[in-house]
Amino acid sequence: MRDFQYRPTRRSVLTGAGTLIASSVVPDAYAQVVAAAMPVAESLAESAAQPFNRSTVAMMAREMAQKEYVPPNSELPPEIADLSYEQYRGIISTRENALWSDTDLPFRLHLFHRGFYYKDEVEVSIVTEGESRHLRYSPDLFTFGETVPRPLPKGDIGFAGIRLLGRINAPDRYDEIAIFQGASYFRAVGRDQVYGLSARGLALKTAAPEGEEFPIFRSFWVETPNPDSETIVVHALLDSQSVTGAYRFTIRPGGSTTMDVEAVIFPRVDLDKVGIAPGTSMFFFGPNDRGDVDDYRPEVHDSDGLLIVNGRGERLWRPLSNPRTLQTSAFLDVGPRGFGLAQRDRNFSSYEDIEATYERRPSLWIEPVGDWGRGTVTLVEIPTESEIHDNIVAYWQPEDVIPAGSEYSFAYRIFWGHEPQMPEGGVRAVSTRIGRGEIAGPSALRLFVIDYIATGPTPAPDAPAPTATVSSGGGKIDHVTISRNPANGGWRLTFRLDPEDQELIELRATLDFPDDRVAETWVYRWTA
Q1: Pick the CATH number of 13-417 from 2.70.98.10, 3.30.1360.120, 2.30.40.10, 2.60.40.10
Q2: Which part of the chain has CATH 2.70.98.10?
Q3: E strands along 57-210, which residues?
Q4: Where exactly does CATH 2.60.40.10 map onto the chain?
Q5: Which pTM was predicted?
Q6: Of 161, 207, 464, 502, which has the highest C-beta tally within 10 A?
Q7: Contact (Cβ atoms closer than 8 angstroms) between residue 92 and residue 58
């Protein structure tokens, strides 16, 4: 799974967006919640009101699943069919023109224009008091740069996605909180963070020989928020060759922005390679896997590890890597408590990048609602030679095939921000470093250095040291030592691995404390 076609770079396209605006000429229910700008008022007023409730999208998805898949319209007027990156960035709008901009509602809504890599037509509707109205496209909803070709589209060509703003960082300012754009990708941020990794509605055939299938969110319904609400609700209709689905996102911005996701999917075919609650991220290099990278920065990644709390309550930490060949790891489980891709290192000195600010990228944490049964947390790591490609995917894969013609419901909560805290006194693996295992000369031996820190108060210098156990699925382990680290008040585990001509070795390390402290289980896949 490469970055697909929807996001050409990591730092720029999603900083530009279209917006929509509203007017008091909209019919009665809408006149109470929108204000002042003619283009959106006209776009809404031209559309007939349709009944809408929590089951509307599910009924549409169920009906679509009985029919042959019809791809979304990707044709654009000739003038904007081949926009360059710079031209696409020139299609913008001001925050003052956002929907609900002249109200005291707690959120604002912007639109994304179609073009460049974002060619698929996406329908957007606004829901108020049990009724939805289709929002018609108009060039008046956007500001176009001088390099954008003319004439501008006049027909109802739809949009490419939506952007939500809220009062996340200050009570008197609206900042970005979430974006839905491209296939079924979406992303969000916590307070004082910047966009990093993405989530998706569904992953199909990731890393499969026949190629990955990318479902799309082809329609959105955005509920008009109440004036005193802390949440905003977005409904989405998912569609692909293999499956349809209905999604409901209840979004609450904060220190960690949360999304309550309720979903039901309707397979057109048997789904045997399906990923639930997938996250997609980037790991280029770090202290455990720098390779031959020639770069002034110490680390470059949106996430540095996969965190799992399995059904037994064991907390696993798996540092990410950028392997030479595609790698898939599966962690068997029953009733997982949570999993996600984390950006654990929050120090600017670890990245030294004043533009990308990787230390401010959010972690993505998934908490299942209900019992997800048997399956695997699956991690896919793909080789990359650049930070512009997302090369990391993590998701839950049910053990059983989801049969064609069935209905499969699931729910989960997403936290965009900081990873979940450990109980007081718990011990985390905060860094993993790998280097040559001998002081001089060429050597196949590898030295592993893992630093642990306890949550809460720093343990006393004379606190009893833990016992370290390191196991491997191949090669030979020796020189295992555990000692206090005076620099951070924690512990440092070191060991040496002799691969013995092995190409792939699974490693596992545990710390056993004489008191009640519980440490994460460190797991790693070493590849030649």
Answers
A1: 2.70.98.10
A2: 13-417
A3: 91-92, 107-112, 123-128, 131-134, 143-144, 161-170, 173-181, 185-188, 198-200, 203-204
A4: 427-527
A5: 0.90
A6: 161
A7: no
Query: Which conformational region is residue 154 in: left (phi greater than 0), alpha (psi within -120 to 50 degrees), or beta?
Result: alpha
Long-range contacts of 287-290 (CB under 8 A, 24+ apart): 287/431, 287/432, 287/433, 287/434, 288/319, 288/321, 288/432, 288/433, 288/434, 288/524, 289/320, 289/321, 289/322, 289/434
277's tokens: 């609650």
- 22: helix, coil or strand? strand
Query: From CA 392, how far away is CA 381, in angstroms rounded?
Result: 5
For 249-305, write each residue's pLDDT tens digit: 999 999 999 999 999 999 999 999 999 999 999 999 999 988 789 999 999 999 999
Q: Which two tokens stand for residue 313?
A: 């309550």
Residue 298: DSSP 8-state: S
pLDDT one-digit tens code per residue, 337-389? 999 999 999 999 999 999 999 999 999 999 999 999 999 999 999 999 999 99
The angle subtended at Cα 456 by Cα 451 and Cα 459, nearest 5°, is 65
CATH code for the domain defined by 427-527: 2.60.40.10
- Distance, CA of 91 to CA of 442 (rounded, Å): 55
Q: How far is CA 311 from the centre of its chain?
A: 23
Element (H, E) at 89: helix 85-89
Residue 480, number of CB atoms within 10 A of its CB: 15
Q: What does the pLDDT read at residue 300?
A: 97
Count Cβ atoms within 10 A of the Cβ of residue 262 and give its class: 0-12 exposed, 13-18 middle, 19 or more buried: middle
Q: How many CB atoms lie within 10 A of CB 145?
A: 13
